[in-house]
């Protein structure tokens, strides 16, 4: 199988703050650059989820201040009514632009089916 990368760039989300792409589609997997939004825990969470929209399927959350974990979870519950994304959460020393958290998603393109194991 050939690997066919394609750069994704949209106007409805902020551009990258460095020399990297907003997202990269490789075959059917979408790698989305970390979403960095300023404005407080609830507002940052809401806007980061809006920026990613429907392509968010799996995320990693990097925290400079882990104390907002409950706030982020509540905002996720408001944005996702079912089929919650997979997520890993861990604390880091510092994030760009003095943000308190950063979302790092990966998504799969195409229809999804819920499987029972």
What structural class results from the helix and strand content? alpha+beta
Distance between the amino and carboxyl termini: 28 Å
Inertia-based shape = globular
Provide the succession of SSEs: EEEHEHEE
Number of strands: 6
Question: Quick gist of this model?
Answer:
The protein is built from two helices and six strands.
Describe the structure.
This protein is α+β, with helices and mostly antiparallel strands and 117 residues long. 20% of the residues lie in helices and 27% in strands. A hairpin with a 2-residue loop joins strand 2 and strand 3 (29-32). Helix 1 (41-52) runs parallel beside helix 2 (69-79). The protein is globular. It starts with a strand and ends in a 9-residue tail after the last strand. Residues 54-59 have low confidence and may be disordered. It holds the Pfam family Ribonuc_L-PSP. One of its GO terms (molecular function) is deaminase activity. One of its GO terms (cellular component) is mitochondrion.
Descriptive keywords:
single chain, 117 residues, alpha+beta, 6 strands
Layout of helices and strands, plus pairs?
Elements: E1 5-8, E2 23-26, E3 29-32, H1 41-52, E4 58-63, H2 69-79, E5 86-91, E6 101-108
Parallel strand pairs: 4-5
Antiparallel strand pairs: 1-2, 2-3, 3-6, 4-6
């Amino acid at each position: 199988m050939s690997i066919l990368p394609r750069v994704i760039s949209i106007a409805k989300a902020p551009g990258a703050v460095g020399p990297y792409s907003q997202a990269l589609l490789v075959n059917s997997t979408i790698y989305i650059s970390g979403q960095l939004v300023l404005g407080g825990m609830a507002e940052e969470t809401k806007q980061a989820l809006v920026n990613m929209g429907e392509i968010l399927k799996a995320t990693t959350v990097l925290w400079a201040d882990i104390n907002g974990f409950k706030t982020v979870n509540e905002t996720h519950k408001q944005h996702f009514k079912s089929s919650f994304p997979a997520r890993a959460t861990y604390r880091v020393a510092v994030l760009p632009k003095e943000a308190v958290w950063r979302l790092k998603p990966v998504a799969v393109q195409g229809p999804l089916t819920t499987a029972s194991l």
